[in-house]
């Protein structure tokens, strides 16, 4: 039976607190037979692109639902090509996206969880981003939770990231006024010049976030798309308008702390009748066909754009993942694994 | 023209931080003609009961929408009888409830804001409580925001208060499991023996609120009715179940601080997909007829009860109001002003 090399990114051991690059290991001596086990209902795929997402670092801790297994490859979203199928929904050479392993080849035993890629007239890596989980996150968190109206004031944190860049563009398409924040001047420029945000600022250069928000939103904020938490949320709460909505997608500023920061100003939730709604997009993929129907024409007509930061090769995946928490990525962080 | 005595409770001056009893003054030398000014479209009422509500203390600060005017009587909810009417909706001897003054007689220039009391077969003071603003608050905050289902786990803070005692009883009527917390053992007893809470505890006797909640809710909390904020909210967030709902009615533990406490564990909002919704019941009185239709039969059939703590006379109103923040009241704090 043909055996091929199968480089893997392994979790060395459960992580206490925040992971480091060295908590992962590139295992270079693994091989895999290019054949499904007999009677398998799964599929064997060749991984093409892998997605770096902040939640992956949470799953390196022990005892969470979905925690990784030390010694085994990280699992996350990716784009892959079917090498062999034991499942009637898939055939050789189909392109799919969904949960796969951080390795060159993966046997997926529950292929029902995968999406078959229909439209290949776009970059395949988009299925880790605008056409995948981050895209759905922006779509659901902005349209479904925030129910935006034309003319409303929208604020996006981590605005140049995988999700934020889309929220900003969706908001502009809705006729909102949009301000984004990011952590480098390069990203701030990108927000204004590439993604069409009305304004943007570098939060690291602001002494007083409340004052910054008052400058950019003299009328206050109707919709806040929350990606960071902590002090930014504290300042945002002071600047929300009556009947404002906060879509709580992530709190990346808090994930690498032993104990979360306390957030003040929660009484604004009462005074301003705020809606604060957390979500995990895995619950909402029933809306995925609706989203594709909306977004694919926008991509093809160039009414929306998407920036990716592509790390080249599995060996660079650990650094790319940790880099998310250091703000190193510009746009969606992807790992290129192999050509088709 | 007949002039009568009109004792008034006056705000002496704007308050910085938390008010004291001495920030209010009983003005005993005021009088009022028992006659409306000519061409008035308002009504002249005799005040019978006044409602002590925490929000009143907020309005003693300068610069808020609805801030009181120093030198003038406090305004708040009350039950009153019409002495003379210049408005076609009202006639002499009608009983009304709504915004009135902390004084013996008040001229109400916008009587459209008042509710005419139709059902007088219940204690009139109930219109400051179960049949008034706190009742609507419990109804809207529990049924409309939390959408409770039979068998769900409900936690209520400030549970023996004007609103909490009703939320607990509504939850039992819905078939939920309900635990309440209060700040004295007397109140805790009342929750269990009088209001039918399944369990109750004195938060002042718990070293570790998280541990207490884990003891009372081994399965976690589906619905939290938030009246207090701060450390209790921080512990509740750790104990919410997936898809839980938090109705944010008040944060009384935070109102008397110069700066709010920071609240940790907000990332639970994401992980547990929580809905957190603040509200101010003044926005939702369109549902008042529905509420009365539901609650009046419950009162008459003794399927629900309501405890009031009645201060006797305007001169005791300032202490009664401040007492809310010291947990002195057992049940809804009312001020009796005069017989009909």
UniProtKB/TrEMBL annotation, chains A, B:
InterPro entries: ADH-like_C, ADH_N_2, ER, GroES-like_sf, MDR_fam, NAD(P)-bd_dom_sf
UniProt KW Oxidoreductase keyword: yes
SMART domains in UniProt: PKS_ER (SM00829)
Pfam families: ADH_N_2, ADH_zinc_N
Residue ranges of domain Enoyl reductase (ER) in the record: 24-335
Gene Ontology molecular function: any one: 2-alkenal reductase [NAD(P)H] activity
Cited SUPFAM superfamilies: GroES-like, NAD(P)-binding Rossmann-fold domains
Keyword line: Oxidoreductase
Protein name: Enoyl reductase (ER) domain-containing protein
Organism listed in the record: Lactuca virosa
